[in-house]
Write a structure and sequence with these properties.
The protein has 364 residues and is α+β, with helices and mostly antiparallel strands. Among the domains are: 93 residues; 148 residues, Heat Shock Protein 90. It contains nine helices and seven strands; from the N terminus they run ααααβαββαββαααββ. The strands form two sheets. A five-stranded mixed beta sheet has the order 2-4-5-7-6, with helices on one face. Strands 1-3 form a two-stranded antiparallel ribbon. Helix 2 runs parallel beside helix 3 and helix 3 runs antiparallel to helix 4.
């Protein structure tokens, strides 16, 4: 915001230090003057006492003037030096802030020395810059991946339309079917991107949600898909009340169960969905059988558009945002997401959300 020019903090600190020093000097000299005036009357009874008293007061006034002048110079010079040394960390912080304002997020303050208010501020600012840099890098990577994913169906549609235009004898029904498939995929991707954006903005009104009911609804809805792929669904658990968006948390549960069904064994696969309540949190666990997953690979599955080869070549290729949406919804509800490869194969995903605390005298 625009501000009128004013005195620098260093100059104000210097003036404050000099002013305080002058005030201390004035009080000290006043005390000396009072002490002198109190004892000088004893000299008035001796010969020449009045002259002695006058001379002493005159010398004291001269000395006081010199002392005050010295204190003023000392206060200004010393205050300027001390203020400069005290404000040096702020100068360093300001320089890094200007760099960040100009788009350079890689610089850090890294203020040396023992812990104090300035070091605490510098460390907090460094932490903020690190998170901001990581967030910007993630957004750029996401934008590049999204552009690539959206360009693919558009390029395919363009090629199919070019074939229909240049080859009138080509099977029109086949082209229409392929266009329908490509268009459906583009719509699904767009809806997933909108859902991801909505979750990131946390644009929802928190309501009471029971994760166990959402788990039952998700498994019932996806039961035909599980039967088609020869996967057994098991759902059990206790009432797990939380506070959040029913629509987003249902989407989270649907994504987890659908992924668990699709990425499973070719035959006789299993998916277990259960909920439990802990002292301060509620937990949703979805685990499935499947191929062994190395821990480094599991750590990347929540990144947008992370799809393995087997996912691309299935009849449910997806858009590569399923677990990314799960992670974003979890973070929007102040929860934690944990992915752990199972030793026999498959994956265990744990969603932990803050529990809805009951008021005294009410039932949850």
């Amino acid at each position: 915001m625009p501000r009128a020019p004013g005195l620098s903090v260093r100059l104000r600190l210097t003036l404050s230090y000099a002013g305080f020093l002058m005030l201390a000097g004035v009080l000290l000299l006043a005390a000396v003057w009072f002490f002198t005036l109190r004892h000088l009357p004893a000299y008035t009874d001796v010969e020449g006492g009045v002259l002695i008293r006058s001379t002493l007061l005159s010398d004291l006034a001269s000395a006081a003037g010199v002392v005050m002048a010295v204190l003023l110079v000392f206060g200004l010079v010393g205050g300027w030096v001390l203020a400069g040394r005290m404000l040096a960390p702020l100068t360093r912080i300001t320089d890094v802030t200007r760099m960040a304002t100009n788009g350079s997020l890689s610089h850090r303050i890294r203020l040396p020395g023992r812990q104090d208010e300035f070091r605490e501020l510098a460390d907090a600012f460094d932490t903020m810059l690190a998170r901001l840099e990581a967030h910007v890098a993630e957004q750029r990577r996401f934008a590049a991946n999204a552009s690539h994913e959206l360009r693919t169906p558009l390029a395919i549609s363009k090629a199919l339309l070019e074939v229909a235009r240049t080859d009138p004898d080509h099977d029109t029904g086949e082209i229409i079917d392929r266009l329908h498939t490509v268009n459906t995929r583009a719509i699904d991707l767009t809806e997933a991107l909108l859902l991801l954006s909505r979750a990131e903005r946390r644009s929802f009104t928190p309501e009471r949600v029971d994760l166990s009911l959402l788990a039952e609804e998700a498994t019932e809805t996806l039961l035909p898909l599980a039967e088609k792929r020869d996967v057994t669904l098991e759902t059990y658990g206790e009432i797990t009340p939380a506070l959040g968006s029913p629509a987003l948390l249902l989407q989270l549960t649907m994504n987890l169960v659908q992924n668990a069904i699709i990425h499973n064994l070719p035959r006789q696969g299993k998916v277990r969905v259960h909920t439990e309540r802990r002292p301060r949190t509620v937990v949703l666990v979805v685990e499935n059988t499947g191929d062994p997953i190395p821990p480094p690979v599991a750590a990347t599955l929540t990144e947008p558009f992370q799809r393995g080869t087997e996912r691309v070549h299935t009849d449910h290729a997806g858009v590569g945002l399923g677990l990314a949406i799960v992670r974003t919804i979890t973070e929007a509800h102040n929860g934690t997401l944990t992915l752990t490869p199972r030793r026999p194969g498959g994956l265990r995903i744990i969603i932990e959300l803050p529990a809805l605390q009951a008021r005294p005298g009410t039932a949850i």
